[in-house]
Specification:
It is built from eight helices and eleven strands. It has a four-stranded parallel beta sheet, with no helix packed on it. Strands 1-7-6 form a three-stranded antiparallel beta sheet, with no helix packed on it. The longest helix is centred in the last third of the chain and has 13 residues. β6 and β7 form a beta hairpin. The relative contact order is 0.13. It is an alpha/beta fold and 216 residues long. It folds into two domains: 88 residues, no CATH class; 127 residues, Ribonuclease Z/Hydroxyacylglutathione hydrolase-like (Metallo-beta-lactamase, Chain A), CATH 3.60.15. InterPro entries: Clx_II_MBL, HAGH_C, Metallo-B-lactamas, RibonucZ/Hydroxyglut_hydro. It is an enzyme of class 3 (hydrolase). It catalyses: an S-(2-hydroxyacyl)glutathione + H2O = a 2-hydroxy carboxylate + glutathione + H(+).
Amino acid sequence: MRTLLLTKVQRKASLTWHKSSPNELKTYLFLYSIAAVVDPDHSGGNEELISQRKGLTVYGGDETIPALNHLVKDGEEFSIGNITAKALYTVCHTRGSDTLFIGGCGRFFEGTADQMYNSLINVLGKLPEDTKVYCGHEYTKSNLKFAESIEPDNQVIKDKIQWASKNQQTIPSTIGDELKFNPFMRVNVDSVKKATGKNDPIEVMGALREMKNNFK
């Protein structure tokens, strides 16, 4: 599916993002819901949510998302109140995205290393560096520990680990920050290549994912 790029935010809009527990939202009036992936922990509450709120628009990029009634396409722009959103095609973890995490990325459940490379490097990596990253899971501390194992001399990673240990919330990040410490966005960097024993960046991406899968 897509990454949702918010380009203009003028005032508050009523929306929920990846909500799986609609009963927690009973005191709010939502007009829109965004579900990027079909995983139950992201979209499992869609059908109940839409039954509670007639006229709710459910956006998503995978036709199998429950209760989906607005399938977005790559590059499509749409409005949520006065928020302008643009969908970007960033698949790999699933057909529905869930690609970039703080300091890491999703497992390659339905995609390949070259797809993740395209999503992280050619699409997200080309966004303005001050673009904020609000990801679907918060695995920041474990991701940073893995990043440090790949680049033990990277001071940015060390500083980020110290910062994460003091904060209750580590989201959002920025694209610029991810390019400095996220190994999956640094597959063209010599130190990351050396850690994987690979030279081709797509092979580096695949090797990193296997290493992360087995990292403890």
